[in-house]
Design goal:
36% of the residues lie in helices and 26% in strands. By secondary structure, it is of the alpha+beta class. Helix 2 packs across helix 13 and helix 3 crosses helix 12. Bound molecules: glycyl-adenosine-5'-phosphate.
């Protein structure tokens, strides 16, 4: 499966989905640039998310908050004190790594051997150890417990193979920014570590400036920044990434939170399988245990996708109670509430939060779509989100009449669909190229087209070719896209 990931990463670079960041200067770790085709796919995913959760709902409004925010926002949210990763360094090769990832990868890869071995830990309880072996998760463990399990299991450095670690230490993930040009007079602010806080600090603005009534959601799509150490795996975990988050506010006296939670689970699942066209067998839910869940959360579940490097978190769903609003009330000294028009009661609502990484959705789409069929590599991306819907070719690039007709058709179709035009190389090569970028249909204008005003439409998935009159192409593709 690691091999599969390498192939996907190579294709992504070869065909202009993703490039390593700052590559011209030797690269900058954990940053990526999206190429021409990747940008289209990323936008299509974001537009579908926004359309599904904002435009098609009457109970959710949008927000686009600043990326740089006041240090007090992050003190109130708990990020300046508690938003950190436990890291350790290999003294031999200087590799820095997240302790939980090191341990979890080891547990994942050595499950069989561990079953027949017995350990006598001191700081970790027998139940905790057993649980870690079963779930292969250690999130929420203290630094001491992680150090102990690394020593017990003799977990070596994945880069150099040595067992020579520093202790496990915590590092804050927020990026500080210094505002003001005169040194000494500068104010400390932060790049946001999540989009969610924008919804809480604007809660009063939104309830005063719009017609919202509980229950309602506020959605935001945008960049977040975390100074993370990652294990590679392309855009799965990066220091700059895009989140799609919704804070769904409700009065717990009027709503059954468990019912709302289940409703969100269903909406998220449907978005992935019907919206993005992902195979359902590659998805699962994982409930957070007490140790892993934040202390204020009553329930947290992660939707996980079976990436080529295993099942990993894709989309989190958390019932965060009224913790965040209460924290901002405490730190700002302002009241944050909405008035129930029926009872005139002031309500500081509770919140359920679905939070997804758009770049993870992107990587999932590539991984799920990647297929090899003999010599052919094809990305079976759902046509709704494919970078281009239709590629238009003249059969021969040196026949003016064919090129003219194909360009005319391209101009007509691009008014309705995202299209691309290609007259390089032969038809076979053009098909292979379009298969690799996931274009669902290729249209060829040939000599017969000049007489019968029809074209050959070739289907990406079946490779079948049909003859369609040019005048019917618009309704032909509209019908196909509605499926
Ligand atoms: N407001 C809650 C919150 O931010 P999170 O689990 O830290 O929760 C939500 O992040 C989602 O954002 C994750 O499920 C994941 O899809 C994505 N995400 C988090 N960190 C990321 C990173 N470094 N790179 C890419 N995506 C990330």
């Amino acid at each position: 499966m690691a091999d599969q990931m390498e192939k996907i990463v190579a294709l992504a670079k070869r065909r202009g989905f993703i490039y390593p960041g700052s590559e011209l200067y030797g690269g900058l770790a954990n940053t990526y640039d999206y190429g021409p085709v990747g940008t289209e796919l990323l936008r299509n995913i974001k537009n579908l998310w926004w359309d599904t959760f904002v435009h098609r709902r009457t109970d959710i409004v949008g927000l686009d908050a600043s990326l740089i925010s006041h240090q007090k926002v992050w003190e109130a949210s708990g990020h300046t004190s508690g938003f950190s990763d436990a890291l350790l360094d290999c003294k031999s090769c200087k590799r820095r790594i997240r302790a939980d990832h090191l341990i979890e990868d080891f547990l994942e890869n050595h499950a069989e051997e561990l079953r027949s071995t017995s350990f006598v830990p001191v700081k970790i309880s027998a139940d905790e150890l057993k649980n870690a072996f079963v779930t292969k998760k250690v999130e929420g463990w203290t630094e001491e417990k992680m150090e102990e399990i690394i020593a017990l299991l003799q977990i070596k450095c994945p880069s150099c193979g040595k067992l020579d670690w520093t202790g496990v230490r915590k590092f804050n993930l927020l990026f500080p920014v210094h505002l003001g040009i005169v040194e000494g007079d500068q104010d400390l602010a932060y790049l946001r570590g999540e989009t969610a806080q924008g919804m809480f600090v604007n809660f009063e603005n939104i309830s005063n400036s719009t017609r919202v009534r509980l229950p309602f959601g506020v959605a935001q799509l945008g960049k977040s920044f975390r100074n993370e150490v990652t294990l590679g795996n392309s855009v799965f975990r990066t220091i700059e990434f895009e989140q799609g988050e919704i804070e769904y506010f409700f009065d717990p006296e009027n709503e059954d939170w468990e019912k709302l939670f289940e409703g969100w689970k269903e909406s998220m699942w449907q978005f992935i399988i019907k919206g993005l066209g992902i195979r359902e067998e590659n998805l699962r839910w994982r409930l957070h245990g007490d140790e892993e869940r934040s202390f204020y959360s009553k329930r947290t579940e992660d939707m996980e996708y079976n990436f080529p490097f295993g099942f990993k978190e894709l989309w989190g769903l958390a019932y965060r109670t009224d913790y965040d609003l209460k924290q901002h009330i405490k730190h700002s000294g302002k009241e944050l509430y909405i008035v129930d028009p029926k009872t005139n009661k002031k309500v500081t609502p509770h919140v359920i939060e679905p939070a997804v990484g758009i770049n993870r959705l992107f990587l999932m789409v590539l991984a799920d779509a990647y297929h090899e069929e003999g010599e052919r590599v094809v990305l079976r991306i759902d046509p709704k989100i494919a970078p281009y819907k239709i590629a238009i070719f003249p059969l021969l690039a040196n026949k003016e009449q064919l090129v003219g007709k194909a360009k005319e058709l391209f101009e007509t179709l691009r008014a309705e669909f995202t299209c691309t035009f290609d007259d390089r190389g032969n038809i076979g090569k053009r098909y292979l190229y379009q298969d690799e970028i996931g274009t669902p249909w290729c249209v060829t204008v040939d000599f017969d087209s000049l007489e019968d005003h029809a074209v050959t439409v070739r289907d990406r998935d079946t490779t079948e070719q049909v003859r369609v009159p040019m005048a019917e192409l618009s309704s032909y593709f509209t019908k196909k896209l509605r499926k």
